[in-house]
Design brief:
The radius of gyration is 29 Å and the shape is globular. It is of the alpha/beta class and 486 residues long. The chain is built from 18 helices and 8 strands. 50% of the residues lie in helices and 7% in strands. Strands 3-5-6-7-4-8 form a 6-stranded mixed β-sheet, with helices on both faces. A two-stranded parallel sheet has the order 1-2. Its main location: mitochondrion. Keywords: ATP-binding, Membrane, Mitochondrion, Mitochondrion outer membrane, Nucleotide-binding.
Length: 486
Amino acid sequence: SQPGGLLFTKFGGSQTSLLDLAFLDSFGRLHDRGKEVSKSTKFLTKLFPNRVTVHMPQDEALLASWKHQLDQDAETLKMKGNLNLLQTVLGRSGMDCEGLETLRIKDQTLTNESAEKVVGWALSHHLILNPEAGSSSRLVLSCESIQYSVTILQAIQNESKSLKKSLKDVVTENEFEKRLLADVIPPSDIGVAFDDIGALENVKDTLKELVMLPLQRPELFCKGQLTKPCKGILLFGPPGTGKTMLKKAVATEADANFIKISMSGITSKWFGEGEKYVKAVFSRASKVAPSVVFVDEFHCTYPSSLINAEMVNWDGLRTKDTERVLVLAATNRPFDLDEAVIRRLPWRLMVNLPDAANRAKILKVILAKEELSPYVDFDAVASMTEGYSGSDLKNLCVTAAHRPIKEILEREKKEQAAALAESKPPPSLCRSADIRPLNMVDCRYAHQQVCASVSSESVNMTELLQWNELYGEGGSRRKKALSYFM
């Protein structure tokens, strides 16, 4: 039978389970392979109760021909899966492509995200070549525009693969640096930009000036001693305010490699060898520069020997003016930090709870890709969520998005019960297109379910504000006089 027929659509275009069956001497070996059996394979064993074992050819010429045929079948399945996905994305966007079936996309497997990128680039390419095409009711893209977009996607993926390969090819001095290979993330794999953060404009502007500009234009900061790039920045504030998003955006926008370390992880996983691990982190960061070393849970208590090791390696970075390595630390408790550590973080930026205007910006970013009712008022939702962090707003939106789905499930349950009572066949299930847009009622319901995780009047919040006044950027630096001096 022709590959990719009705049977293959049952498995979502995946050939893995079918090729598994081709290489099995018998289905009884499924339990002897030492790994979990996929659902598709279990389904096939039930679908075909009578089985005939097909052995691989023993003759070398026949075996080579058989393997070649398998490769061709897999290639055909991949091409058909790619074309079906592109056709789905085109149809969902109200577009079509003339001669799409003639394309042979066999060198890569498209995902939903990459297929949407291909269609978007193809649309731009088509409108550039045909400016008058935008006035038509249904756009019909040319096959050349799709092929052009696939070529762009292939080039981007090849560049990402070469970057990953170059990172792995960096010489490692010891076992600790080898273990860090998986922790070095290229900027293309992070996928978070400053535009994905709906607020914190002042913090973003400061980070662009301190981090991105020196990493992108180091030649502007090599004259004199006062313009040396900043080597350490501390982000502090209550949980859920966007510190993790900021550090990812910094690495992405600055096109720098990203290394994340957790202080609690060092003291537990690397017990007794923390100093060597810290040295390996800074050594690795120097070799893959430009790089951003993100230290999470910076407030954790750890041995003095580990502090000394970190300070020595940190000072080594600070003496190398041309070394494009930045230490970006984050903490919820800056008042627990040692003074020697604070001194090495000359820029200390507070990431505070958003005000009403910034909450509205965050909501717009979170709901940018959701289908909304025209009556959704972002300012009204922002006003009712006083004291909410960015993480709280995300949880609120998720709760609101589930409400239309719950309504559909409840309606289906009632319809099925009514059909069963009347001895009628059950009605068809709803599809994603039947889900209604989000409205203000959903937001008010979610507001009753999701509350703020951080109290603006808590002791921890008060201590954060006091520490910001003393050590943070923009603080008054005025220490409070003790009562016995009065």
